[in-house]
Amino acid sequence: MVLRQLKAVFGAGVTVDSVLTDPNVTPGATLNGEVTFVGGENDQKVESINIEFTAIVELDDKGEDKQSTFDFHRAQVSGPFQLAKGSTHSVAFSIPVPLETPLSAVGGRPLPTMKLGVSTELALDNAFDKGDLDPLVVEPLPIQAAVMAAMEELGFVLQLADLEAGTIPGSHMPFYQEIEYWPGGEFKDRFREVELTFVAGKLSTDVLLQANDKGGLLSPAHDAYQRFTVQNEEPGDLVEALRMQLTQLAQRQGIA
User: Fold this and answer.
1) Are 100 and 200 in contact (CB under 8 A)?
2) Where are the domains of the chain?
3) pLDDT tens digits for 106-128?
Protein backbone atom coordinates (compact mmCIF):
# COMPACT_ATOMS: atom_id res chain seq x y z
CA MET A 1 0.00 0.00 0.00
CA VAL A 2 1.38 3.42 -0.91
CA LEU A 3 0.44 6.68 0.75
CA ARG A 4 -0.26 9.51 -1.63
CA GLN A 5 2.50 12.10 -1.86
CA LEU A 6 2.22 14.72 0.85
CA LYS A 7 3.76 17.54 -1.18
CA ALA A 8 0.42 19.23 -1.75
CA VAL A 9 -0.19 19.38 2.00
CA PHE A 10 3.25 19.97 3.48
CA GLY A 11 5.36 21.16 0.58
CA ALA A 12 7.64 18.27 1.48
CA GLY A 13 7.16 15.65 -1.24
CA VAL A 14 7.45 12.83 1.30
CA THR A 15 6.24 9.41 0.09
CA VAL A 16 5.48 6.35 2.19
CA ASP A 17 5.37 2.72 1.11
CA SER A 18 4.05 0.11 3.54
CA VAL A 19 4.42 -3.58 2.74
CA LEU A 20 2.80 -6.42 4.67
CA THR A 21 4.95 -9.54 5.02
CA ASP A 22 1.78 -11.62 4.77
CA PRO A 23 -1.68 -10.01 4.55
CA ASN A 24 -3.27 -13.32 5.61
CA VAL A 25 -3.77 -13.52 9.37
CA THR A 26 -6.10 -14.94 12.01
CA PRO A 27 -7.55 -13.13 15.04
CA GLY A 28 -4.97 -12.95 17.82
CA ALA A 29 -2.04 -13.54 15.44
CA THR A 30 0.67 -11.01 14.53
CA LEU A 31 0.69 -8.73 11.50
CA ASN A 32 4.23 -8.10 10.26
CA GLY A 33 5.43 -5.56 7.75
CA GLU A 34 7.69 -2.65 6.97
CA VAL A 35 7.13 1.06 6.35
CA THR A 36 9.61 2.85 4.08
CA PHE A 37 9.82 6.65 3.84
CA VAL A 38 11.53 8.64 1.12
CA GLY A 39 12.33 12.22 2.06
CA GLY A 40 11.23 15.13 -0.08
CA GLU A 41 12.66 18.56 -0.82
CA ASN A 42 13.54 19.47 2.76
CA ASP A 43 14.51 17.89 6.05
CA GLN A 44 11.39 16.90 7.97
CA LYS A 45 10.60 15.81 11.51
CA VAL A 46 8.32 12.77 11.58
CA GLU A 47 6.31 12.81 14.81
CA SER A 48 5.00 9.23 14.62
CA ILE A 49 3.97 6.37 12.35
CA ASN A 50 0.78 4.46 13.11
CA ILE A 51 -0.95 1.45 11.58
CA GLU A 52 -4.75 1.46 11.76
CA PHE A 53 -7.16 -1.45 11.32
CA THR A 54 -10.29 -0.32 9.51
CA ALA A 55 -13.64 -1.88 8.66
CA ILE A 56 -16.66 -0.79 6.62
CA VAL A 57 -19.74 -1.05 8.85
CA GLU A 58 -23.44 -1.00 7.99
CA LEU A 59 -25.54 1.68 9.70
CA ASP A 60 -29.31 1.75 10.02
CA ASP A 61 -30.20 5.44 9.90
CA LYS A 62 -33.97 5.77 10.37
CA GLY A 63 -34.62 2.76 8.18
CA GLU A 64 -32.07 3.79 5.55
CA ASP A 65 -29.01 1.59 5.12
CA LYS A 66 -25.72 3.47 5.10
CA GLN A 67 -22.05 2.59 5.44
CA SER A 68 -19.40 4.11 7.65
CA THR A 69 -15.68 3.60 8.18
CA PHE A 70 -14.67 2.37 11.65
CA ASP A 71 -11.03 2.46 12.81
CA PHE A 72 -11.11 -0.25 15.46
CA HIS A 73 -7.42 -0.69 16.34
CA ARG A 74 -4.44 1.68 16.19
CA ALA A 75 -0.81 0.80 16.88
CA GLN A 76 2.17 3.17 16.90
CA VAL A 77 5.11 1.58 15.11
CA SER A 78 7.56 4.47 15.39
CA GLY A 79 8.15 7.55 17.49
CA PRO A 80 9.79 10.82 16.38
CA PHE A 81 12.76 10.86 14.01
CA GLN A 82 14.40 13.21 11.51
CA LEU A 83 13.90 12.45 7.82
CA ALA A 84 16.63 14.13 5.77
CA LYS A 85 15.70 15.39 2.31
CA GLY A 86 15.91 12.68 -0.32
CA SER A 87 16.87 10.02 2.24
CA THR A 88 15.21 6.65 2.83
CA HIS A 89 14.11 5.43 6.25
CA SER A 90 12.53 2.03 6.97
CA VAL A 91 10.72 0.76 10.07
CA ALA A 92 9.74 -2.88 10.58
CA PHE A 93 6.65 -3.60 12.67
CA SER A 94 4.87 -6.49 14.38
CA ILE A 95 1.33 -5.77 15.57
CA PRO A 96 -0.96 -8.15 17.49
CA VAL A 97 -4.22 -8.60 15.58
CA PRO A 98 -7.18 -8.02 17.95
CA LEU A 99 -8.82 -11.29 18.96
CA GLU A 100 -12.24 -9.98 17.95
CA THR A 101 -11.17 -8.89 14.47
CA PRO A 102 -13.95 -9.88 12.04
CA LEU A 103 -13.36 -12.51 9.38
CA SER A 104 -12.93 -11.56 5.73
CA ALA A 105 -12.20 -14.97 4.18
CA VAL A 106 -12.82 -18.66 4.83
CA GLY A 107 -10.53 -21.31 3.38
CA GLY A 108 -8.98 -18.79 1.02
CA ARG A 109 -12.36 -17.61 -0.31
CA PRO A 110 -13.32 -13.98 0.39
CA LEU A 111 -16.51 -13.46 2.36
CA PRO A 112 -18.83 -11.53 0.02
CA THR A 113 -19.38 -7.84 0.92
CA MET A 114 -16.73 -7.79 3.68
CA LYS A 115 -14.41 -4.78 3.51
CA LEU A 116 -11.52 -4.91 5.95
CA GLY A 117 -8.00 -3.52 5.79
CA VAL A 118 -5.11 -1.58 7.29
CA SER A 119 -3.67 1.82 6.49
CA THR A 120 -0.57 3.78 7.47
CA GLU A 121 -0.90 7.11 9.25
CA LEU A 122 1.95 9.63 9.17
CA ALA A 123 2.27 12.52 11.62
CA LEU A 124 4.53 15.10 9.99
CA ASP A 125 5.11 18.56 11.46
CA ASN A 126 2.08 18.12 13.76
CA ALA A 127 -0.23 17.28 10.84
CA PHE A 128 -1.71 13.84 10.12
CA ASP A 129 -2.25 12.06 6.84
CA LYS A 130 -3.45 8.53 6.20
CA GLY A 131 -3.01 6.30 3.16
CA ASP A 132 -5.49 4.20 1.27
CA LEU A 133 -6.93 1.05 2.79
CA ASP A 134 -4.85 -2.04 2.03
CA PRO A 135 -6.97 -5.24 2.08
CA LEU A 136 -6.40 -7.53 5.04
CA VAL A 137 -7.34 -11.21 4.79
CA VAL A 138 -8.53 -12.53 8.16
CA GLU A 139 -9.19 -16.27 8.24
CA PRO A 140 -11.14 -17.92 11.09
CA LEU A 141 -9.60 -19.37 14.21
CA PRO A 142 -9.74 -23.19 14.36
CA ILE A 143 -12.82 -23.12 16.62
CA GLN A 144 -14.59 -20.64 14.33
CA ALA A 145 -13.76 -22.75 11.28
CA ALA A 146 -15.06 -25.84 13.08
CA VAL A 147 -18.38 -24.16 13.90
CA MET A 148 -18.78 -23.00 10.30
CA ALA A 149 -17.96 -26.50 9.04
CA ALA A 150 -20.63 -27.91 11.36
CA MET A 151 -23.17 -25.43 9.94
CA GLU A 152 -22.39 -26.70 6.45
CA GLU A 153 -22.66 -30.31 7.59
CA LEU A 154 -26.18 -29.51 8.80
CA GLY A 155 -27.05 -28.28 5.32
CA PHE A 156 -26.62 -24.53 5.73
CA VAL A 157 -25.13 -22.59 2.81
CA LEU A 158 -22.99 -19.52 3.46
CA GLN A 159 -24.24 -16.46 1.58
CA LEU A 160 -22.41 -13.34 2.74
CA ALA A 161 -21.18 -11.44 5.78
CA ASP A 162 -21.40 -7.87 6.97
CA LEU A 163 -20.69 -5.70 9.99
CA GLU A 164 -23.41 -3.98 11.99
CA ALA A 165 -22.81 -1.02 14.29
CA GLY A 166 -23.24 -1.65 18.02
CA THR A 167 -21.60 -3.56 20.85
CA ILE A 168 -23.11 -6.85 21.95
CA PRO A 169 -22.66 -8.12 25.53
CA GLY A 170 -19.23 -9.64 26.13
CA SER A 171 -17.62 -7.85 23.19
CA HIS A 172 -15.28 -4.86 23.15
CA MET A 173 -15.84 -3.94 19.51
CA PRO A 174 -18.01 -1.05 18.25
CA PHE A 175 -19.61 -3.44 15.73
CA TYR A 176 -20.42 -7.13 15.31
CA GLN A 177 -20.18 -9.46 12.34
CA GLU A 178 -23.15 -11.33 10.93
CA ILE A 179 -22.34 -14.33 8.73
CA GLU A 180 -25.52 -15.17 6.83
CA TYR A 181 -26.63 -18.68 5.88
CA TRP A 182 -29.50 -20.10 3.89
CA PRO A 183 -30.94 -23.21 5.56
CA GLY A 184 -30.90 -26.67 4.05
CA GLY A 185 -31.07 -30.28 5.14
CA GLU A 186 -33.27 -30.95 8.16
CA PHE A 187 -33.67 -27.20 8.80
CA LYS A 188 -34.70 -26.25 5.26
CA ASP A 189 -38.32 -25.56 6.18
CA ARG A 190 -37.65 -24.19 9.65
CA PHE A 191 -35.78 -20.98 8.85
CA ARG A 192 -35.67 -18.43 6.09
CA GLU A 193 -32.19 -17.30 7.12
CA VAL A 194 -29.80 -17.82 10.03
CA GLU A 195 -27.05 -15.39 10.98
CA LEU A 196 -23.95 -16.51 12.86
CA THR A 197 -21.91 -14.22 15.13
CA PHE A 198 -18.76 -14.98 17.13
CA VAL A 199 -17.46 -13.34 20.31
CA ALA A 200 -13.95 -14.74 20.50
CA GLY A 201 -12.10 -15.25 23.78
CA LYS A 202 -8.72 -16.69 24.74
CA LEU A 203 -10.15 -19.91 26.19
CA SER A 204 -13.69 -20.05 24.85
CA THR A 205 -15.86 -18.56 22.12
CA ASP A 206 -19.47 -17.45 22.31
CA VAL A 207 -21.61 -18.44 19.34
CA LEU A 208 -24.75 -16.43 18.58
CA LEU A 209 -27.42 -17.70 16.20
CA GLN A 210 -30.05 -15.29 14.96
CA ALA A 211 -33.20 -16.01 13.00
CA ASN A 212 -35.58 -13.40 11.57
CA ASP A 213 -34.55 -10.62 9.24
CA LYS A 214 -36.06 -7.82 11.33
CA GLY A 215 -33.81 -5.82 13.62
CA GLY A 216 -30.48 -7.13 14.85
CA LEU A 217 -28.79 -8.68 17.83
CA LEU A 218 -29.25 -5.42 19.72
CA SER A 219 -33.03 -5.51 19.15
CA PRO A 220 -34.09 -8.76 20.85
CA ALA A 221 -37.77 -7.77 20.71
CA HIS A 222 -37.61 -8.25 16.94
CA ASP A 223 -35.44 -11.34 16.91
CA ALA A 224 -35.19 -14.92 17.93
CA TYR A 225 -31.64 -15.71 18.86
CA GLN A 226 -29.66 -18.30 20.74
CA ARG A 227 -26.30 -17.89 22.47
CA PHE A 228 -23.99 -20.62 23.74
CA THR A 229 -20.31 -21.09 24.59
CA VAL A 230 -17.81 -23.57 23.16
CA GLN A 231 -14.32 -24.31 24.43
CA ASN A 232 -11.56 -23.40 22.00
CA GLU A 233 -9.45 -26.51 22.58
CA GLU A 234 -11.98 -29.31 23.19
CA PRO A 235 -15.35 -28.14 21.88
CA GLY A 236 -16.93 -31.59 21.69
CA ASP A 237 -19.42 -32.62 19.00
CA LEU A 238 -20.21 -29.30 17.35
CA VAL A 239 -22.70 -30.76 14.88
CA GLU A 240 -24.87 -32.09 17.70
CA ALA A 241 -24.41 -28.91 19.74
CA LEU A 242 -25.53 -26.78 16.81
CA ARG A 243 -28.44 -29.11 16.02
CA MET A 244 -29.71 -28.70 19.58
CA GLN A 245 -29.24 -24.92 19.58
CA LEU A 246 -30.90 -24.52 16.18
CA THR A 247 -33.83 -26.67 17.29
CA GLN A 248 -34.30 -24.42 20.31
CA LEU A 249 -34.03 -21.37 18.06
CA ALA A 250 -36.79 -22.75 15.82
CA GLN A 251 -38.96 -23.34 18.87
CA ARG A 252 -38.46 -19.73 19.95
CA GLN A 253 -39.79 -18.71 16.56
CA GLY A 254 -42.80 -20.92 17.11
CA ILE A 255 -41.68 -23.42 14.47
CA ALA A 256 -41.79 -27.04 15.62
Assistant:
1) yes
2) 2-138, 142-252
3) 999 999 889 999 988 888 766 66
